[in-house]
Amino acid sequence: MKFLLEVTMDEGALAEDPTAELQRILRYWGGNLKHYDLKPGDGSAIYDSAYREVGRWSVEGQAG
């Protein structure tokens, strides 16, 4: 299995301060993962601090 995190960094809050914005995204989603089984097919959109969709995380592949 693979855990994939894809974030577009060329506009909005990520373009203005990429380090701070990525830190915020990783903290938020790191804490939010407890709400998921983390099995293939799980995933969610990722939003920046202005609540614009900037990417997605997903779990892909076969379990076991």
From TrEMBL:
Q: What is this protein called?
A: Uncharacterized protein
